[in-house]
Amino acid sequence: MNPHVRSDDNCHLWVEQSGSGPPLVLCHGGPGMWDYLAPVARLLDDHARTIRWDQRGCGRSQRRGPYSVARFVADLDAVRDQLAGPGMALLGHSWGAHLALRYAIEHPERVSHLIYVSGTGIDPERGWHPHYERNLRQRLGRHLDRWEALGAHARTPAEQRERAVLQWSADFADQDTALRHAQHMATPWLGINEDCNQALNAEVKQELRGSDLIVQCRALDLPVLIIDGAEDIRPRWAVDSLHEALPNSRRLSLAGCGHLPWVENPLDFRQAVTTFLTQHSHQTPSQLHREPANREDPR
């Protein structure tokens, strides 16, 4: 299989497929990181043909811009067009959840299901971030001093990796295993594209302040599963406005896990996602848009 998709502006994007069934495209977080969703693919391989990719400028994809939400939406559409076909299910994690949401808003006829994992919502002021910073420092505990010291000066690649591992360890609820999980995420270390991270974060912040995203979400009548870990250090109330705006969404919080719920609670994560994916599986995306809204909230 060709390990790359070529975007419409000739950027080569690394991709990998596995499993069998209807296509499910996975969007990793960051921005500026690489795909770390292989464990999610393994959980779902018997229910879907999973398609993972490194976003442009990240990981194994070509190191070039431009870095904008519109450009990343177009890249995702190239992945869909060349590997998934006319329609697909979408699963996005963290920043990737926002990317998947934006894609679904712009191309609803090409999306059958949207799975929004550990996203941070659509509140205009992004008021969750001070709470995240406070929770991050608290959960870092004895590693806080080292994390701050590494952030106070220019870092070697080894120090960049060390700081990332410490920061990512706070994304897990069980601190006895958190460092091990974070080390696994950082292996192999493919480097964080800071230019990509800064550009996209700045654009999303501006977008949320000035756009009609809530209005667009109200018009997005396709099935959406909002799923996250109950102990994520990003406050989950930040997602309330998104859930309220979507006419056909379900929300589920998994106990005993943080920002990567499939790592710490894989059985419940798999059951929730596979159950959601099998609903309406016989219908096309355009037919799904005519389904009546479902406002069930198990939380």
Give a structural overview:
Residues 288-299 have a biased composition (Basic and acidic residues). Residues 279-299 are annotated as: Disordered. This protein is an alpha/beta fold and 299 residues long. It folds into two domains: 4-126 and 192-288, Rossmann fold; 130-185, no CATH class. Helix content is 42%, strand content 15%. The chain has 13 helices and eight strands. The chain has helices at residues 38-44, 69-84, 95-106, 129-140, 144-151, 157-169, 178-185, 194-210, 213-218, 240-245, 261-264, 266-278, 285-288; strands spanning 4-6, 12-19, 23-27, 49-53, 88-93, 111-117, 224-229, 249-254. The protein has an eight-stranded mixed β-sheet. α2 (69-84) packs across α3 and α5 (144-151) runs antiparallel to α6 (157-169). It is globular, with a radius of gyration of 18 Å.
CATH class of the largest domain: Alpha Beta
Rg, alpha carbons? 18 Å
CATH superfamily of the largest domain: Alpha/Beta hydrolase fold, catalytic domain
Structural class: alpha/beta
The strand line-up of the biggest sheet is 1-2-4-3-5-6-7-8
Tally of strands? 8
Estimate the helix proportion, in percent. Answer: 40-55%
Distance between the termini: 42 Å
Tally of separate helices: 13
Q: Which of globular, elongated, flat, extended, rod-shaped describes the shape?
A: globular
CATH architecture of the largest domain: 3-Layer(aba) Sandwich
Number of domains: 2
Strand content: 15-25%
Overall pLDDT: 92
Pfam family, one: Abhydrolase_1
Organism: Micromonospora lutea
Domain AB hydrolase-1: 22-266
Keywords: Hydrolase
